[in-house]
Amino acid sequence: MYLYTEINISVNKASLYKGCLEPILLKLLKENGRMYGYEITQRVKELTAGELKITEGALYPLLHRLEAEGILEVEMENLGNRVRKYYSLTPTGKKEQAKAMIELEAFKNTLQLIFNPKLA
Amino acid sequence: MYLYTEINISVNKASLYKGCLEPILLKLLKENGRMYGYEITQRVKELTAGELKITEGALYPLLHRLEAEGILEVEMENLGNRVRKYYSLTPTGKKEQAKAMIELEAFKNTLQLIFNPKLA
DNA sequence: ATCAATACATAAGTAATTTAGGTATTTATT
DNA sequence: AATAAATACCTAAATTACTTATGTATTGAT
User: Fold this and answer.
1) Where is the Transcription regulator PadR N-terminal domain (chains A, B) (predicted)?
2) pLDDT class for A117, splitting at 50, 70, 90?
């Protein structure tokens, strides 16, 4: 039986963040060397003061896909009886991360052109 | 028979822009008063120097949805034998536009927190 | 003891697109 | 004059990136 203690009233302004999860993940791994899934969800929540909550249903499949694509590699670590999976960027992943940052810059500039045309 | 003269080699960095089309549209209509579909695709291409191309398959269904939701209203105009459909914000649409801009600001700030943590 | 937090996972459903067509008129090019 | 390109609308199937809703199991706090 499940008892939910936290009621999630998050609005669905979420759609703007679509497509951002992968660059966010790559950036965090670049900064931190290696991280595990749960840690990533918590770090994003901290960094954004709760504004952005990475759902596990989005994160875990992404981690698996990027591992399959050779962008991430994984190391298992045992904590007592539990397993923790640390992910880090492969050499390919580092190139991919750099590309993602360039694309993100272009994205931000493009938004600037549309939403703040005077400053451009 | 169809002969394609322009070969579209657009990469699929497109995913970052997912969820941005509606705020872009609302912003353009706020700035320009009224616009028609084809004009919107061209304006965005101009504004962004070709970086962002709004596809008609995305735009027209969105215009129809927003009209059905009472966010946009439409005026038909005849050009010779052709019809042009001008869209503009309803009063509801103006409120929606303002909300979208606030959400976009929050989005940009959140990205800042993740990608430029030092400047925040 | 019980609840909350930690830590992994998958699968069905949904929304915003892309891709790939389609029709028709008007303007430019050869 | 004929052809191509641009203008102007449209839709529907497929894809993508998620959300929502589950599930299991361990560990730490009250």
Assistant:
1) 25-97
2) confident
